[in-house]
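Progress against Task 2.4 (sequence-to-structure conversion) is shown through the following example record, which the project officer requested during the mid-term review.
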Amino acid sequence: MNSQLDRLLADPKPKLVRSRRKMMKFLLQAYHAGVPGLMAKPSTDLLAHSGGYSFHIGCPNPELRTIASWILTSGGGDHRKVARLIPALWKRHGQEDLALVGLLLANMSQAELGEDPWLALIHLFEAQEPLGALLEIAEEMVRGGHAIPDDAWLIAMAGQSALWHQVAVLFLSLRKEDFGGARALIATAPRGGDLFEKIRTRLLTQEH
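Structure tokens generated for the chain above:
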């Protein structure tokens, strides 16, 4: 555990969670506190620019998990307060913000979010999003126990926009069972970058 982050998160802060503005500022402090001492700032700046994030501070995943756990604890069992942080984190669009959204969605139920977790995620999307980050968020949600939606849901999602179509394919790639009637969804998805095309090729190769 990072000692600086440990001190910052020593106690739950329920009052802080109730203020989105103050909480967003506090989370920036937490991200900085979680960065290893030898992290190279120019590298994180480059990653932010190339990855489509507003910033990339360099806070590692274990520390982000600690921050997410602290947020949920500070919510005092009222996760609806925590859920209200999610759109603000997405709008700010830092690399750590998006990773934190995934961790929160993975650990919250439909009742706590007010809608299905997968719907809560896709309703956050703007016109363009970093597909690698969306895949990592989806992987985290699956690890958290949220089952990938069925074919009909994904096909309906894919019809909404080019981005949603690509993301539906990413979601499908995390399924363990056969893809059923979703082969056309994979084949007709708009062309993406190297990551997306590797995933598409793997899925179509697996399909028979």
